[in-house]
Design brief:
This protein has 141 residues and is mostly helical. The chain has 2 domains: 59 residues, no CATH class; 64 residues. Strands 1-2 form a two-stranded antiparallel ribbon. Strand 1 and strand 2 form a beta hairpin. Helix 2 runs antiparallel to helix 3. The longest helix has 22 residues.
């Protein structure tokens, strides 16, 4: 509803963000075509912290921002490549993109980071469930 309203009204800040998102999408498609996962990760991160949160401020919250900050701090830019919000907002459906060589460490560390941040905010934010980390792989067949 918020996205539709801001689109129909052509709200200035949001309209500029929409144009930026369209440009980022073109770059994402190009990065996919070039099989450049690291660039895709950088672009989806830029899209989240730029256009998406400009158009939909509720797409993020303190939990999401704190978790991303701690993941960045723990892994650094060589291992942590990017973040995207998938199918949810404000912490539901987050995706963290890592260097493939950091996958094992990420699978070990990320659940603890997520639970720690949740524990720090249990009294401030409603959590429907404990955070879960899914391990996705590309099916080469």
């Amino acid at each position: 509803e918020m996205v539709t309203e801001r689109y129909l009204l052509r709200s200035s800040k949001e309209w500029i963000a929409r144009k930026e998102a369209c440009s980022i999408l073109d770059s994402i498609l190009e990065a996919f075509a070039n099989s450049n996962v690291k660039e895709v990760a950088e672009l989806v991160t830029r899209n989240f912290f730029g256009p998406i949160t400009t158009i939909i401020p509720w797409a993020t919250n303190r939990y999401t921002e704190t978790l991303i900050s701690r993941v960045k701090s723990h892994f650094g830019p060589s291992k942590f490549w990017g973040f995207w919000m998938l199918g949810g907002m404000s912490g539901g459906g987050m995706g963290f993109i890592f260097d493939p060589d950091a996958k094992a460490e990420a699978l070990e560390v990320l659940p603890g980071l997520m639970r720690t941040v949740k524990g720090e905010m249990d009294d401030a934010l409603p959590f429907a469930m404990d955070p879960v980390v899914y391990d996705f792989e590309i099916n080469e067949r």
